[in-house]
Amino acid sequence: MTSLLMRSIKFLVGLGFVGVLLIALWGTISGLIREGTPQTAEQALHEHPKELHLPSNGPFGKFDLAQLQRGFKVYEKVCAQCHSLNLVSFRELAGLGYNEAEIKKIAKDWPVKQPVFDNKAGTWGERDNTPADRFPKVYYAANGTPPDLSLITKARHDGAAYVYSLMVGYTEKPDAEGAKKFPEALKSPEGLHFNKYFANLHLAMPAPLTDAQIDTVKYTDGTPTTVDQMAQDVSAFLVWTAEPTMQQRHRFGVAVLIFLIFATILGYGAYRNVWRGMKH
After folding, report:
1. Distance CA 32, CA 9 (A)
2. How are beta strands 193-194 and 123-127 bridged, if at all?
3. What's the start-to-end Cα distance of the chain, in Å?
4. How far apart are CA 64 and CA 231, in angstroms?
5. Which helix (H) or strand (E) element contains residue 265?
6. Average pLDDT for residues 32-36, to the nearest whole number?
């Protein structure tokens, strides 16, 4: 009798516990149905990258070597101070149209040198870069180590468009309605900067491209040196660093498609010739 009573009490307690959980679940679901999920500041103020039309876009895209050289200059004069390009070798700059002498000079004059360990002395030193070396890593830890840019257009959704939008997004105002609803989100914490194209709206990197850099970069091919143009050019350059063989891949892809179409036509012709007049 006692055992049956204990089992009954346990059953009622368990049933009550399940009932409380069901009531809580129903309250949550009904609340979401009535009011919806509360909008966050990131959802209200964050914007997707703007469209960026580059010559390399699309399955038949080609690199504009003049633009890539301008983009490399922007990287060299502005971005290289903080961001590495450690998966790219100096000699690969030949793909941008630089000759051997120019590449040697770029490697030798690069401000960050190659680290060298002296086994006898047990100390680290450095030497000049050579064309065979990769771009040396940048050790910068004021606000954490900035990401390497070698594959940045592959590692970020929307690729070059994201990089371009981020570069020019520091001065763009957020949506007025969202800013009115979340005014506190516009106040960046100390050491951070507001950018509506960054996922959580605030990042440690200050605006890398400003009017102050125009004289530092200064294009020599007649292209106007503006913040927008520099952002487009460096984005195009970073597309190249992520996939320098893109043009060859496109050419091979077109050749393979043409071959497959031709082979399909031959195969169908052979099929019609061999099985002509036969019921199947």
Report:
1. 35
2. unpaired
3. 80
4. 15
5. helix 246-274
6. 61
